[in-house]
Design brief:
2 domains; Heat Shock Protein 90; alpha+beta
Length: 361
């Protein structure tokens, strides 16, 4: 589940921080362009020697690169239009040209004892280099800035969509609980009432399971995530209640390794599968059947199966509110990493399997 703080951090990372890897690659590209331009100027005879061209090329290129990236970093929140990006680029290009025209001769004179004078066509040669680098830098960084703005807008749109989907899904979950629990509660209380005089022990056991189920269910209405163990305990209480109601027509087994019980798991994800297994699989079948719940560790994921020996896919309400809610929540919580599978449980019945990424506590 993506929390609000994680959403803000994700957007902030797109808006506010230069990626070190991309910055390094851009610096390498700038250095390569500097060498190529210096070699070109030497080969065509516009300016010689190569060392002088290279130092001045590097001075112009790295000055523009540094200044433009610095301006983008400082002004980033305001760079949301073509005009603002263009003005920032112009400031960076002309500022880099000015700095480069001063740094290049300084390095040549103090480190290589090469003195460049105005009479050596210095202004012309510097102008040629400045035009090369000004045009190259402006095009490169303008393209990068427009891509960043587009990516930022797409990221913001994705976050807004996820927030809306999460809100809608939460409402659906509350609606699902509101639809299921009163009907289930009234039926259970009616069964308990009928057992009080005839089979008080069963009535007491059913009441205890109902109390446990309600306590667990009410404690899960606020958090987004419980544990697999808590979900299984709630499902077991529900099955115990149905066992009293259906008697010998319902058998169930739960096989959950103790090591998996502590893993985080969304609430109300298993119960709709169990309810469908009983309502659409076992109850319409005269002799009833069995529900089996199994969980297994698949390395990077958890697989939880709810299998029954009922009537199978032909009677299963795959398009019902509960199943649709489970599919929608899995998609929103885990994207393509989570899934719900519905398949025949040979020789008869249905198997519903949930696979979700395993998240350690």
């Amino acid at each position: 589940m993506i929390s609000g703080s994680e959403e803000r951090q994700s957007v902030s990372s797109v808006r506010g921080h230069l990626n070190a890897k991309h910055l390094l690659l851009e610096c390498i590209y700038t250095l390569i362009i500097c060498v190529l331009i210096a070699a070109f100027l030497s080969l065509v005879g516009i300016s010689k020697p190569f060392l002088s061209n290279l130092i001045r090329s590097l001075s112009f290129g790295l000055s523009m690169f540094t200044l433009i990236n610095l301006l983008f970093w400082l002004l980033n929140p305001r760079l949301d239009s073509t005009v603002s990006i263009g003005l920032t680029l112009l400031a960076g290009v002309f500022g880099g040209m000015l700095v480069g025209s001063l740094v290049g001769p300084f390095i040549l004179e103090h480190f290589f004892s090469i003195v460049i004078t105005e009479g050596d066509d210095y202004l012309f040669k510097s102008s040629v280099l400045a035009i090369f680098f000004g045009g190259t830098a402006a095009y490169f960084f303008y393209s990068k800035a427009r891509l960043r703005v587009s990516r930022e807008a797409a990221e913001q749109e994705r976050m807004n969509r996820l927030a809306s989907e999460k809100e809608a899904l939460t409402s659906n979950l509350r609606l699902l609980q509101a639809q299921i629990e009163p009907h289930f509660l009234f039926n259970t209380l009616s069964n308990i009432l009928s057992l009080i005089d005839t089979e008080p022990a069963k009535g007491k056991a059913m009441l205890m399971d109902l109390i446990h189920y309600l306590r667990t269910s009410l404690s899960r209405t606020l958090p987004d995530t419980t544990t697999l163990g808590q979900e299984i305990d709630a499902v077991k209480a529900y099955l115990n209640i149905q066992k009293v109601r259906l008697g010998d027509r319902l058998e169930f087994t739960i096989d959950i390794p103790e090591t998996l019980r502590q893993y985080p798991f969304p609430p109300m994800l298993l119960q709709p599968l169990v309810e469908n297994a009983i309502k659409h699989g076992l109850e319409p079948k005269i002799e009833g059947g069995e529900v089996r719940i199994v969980a297994a560790d698949k390395g990077e994921s958890l697989r939880i199966e709810v299998a029954d020996t009922g009537l199978g896919l032909s009677s299963f309400n795959a398009s019902g509110v509960g199943i649709a809610n489970v599919k929608e929540r899995i998609k929103l919580l885990y994207n393509e990493k989570g899934l719900l599978l519905l398949e025949e449980n040979k020789p008869n019945g249905l198997r519903a399997a949930i696979e979700v990424p395993r998240r350690d506590t």
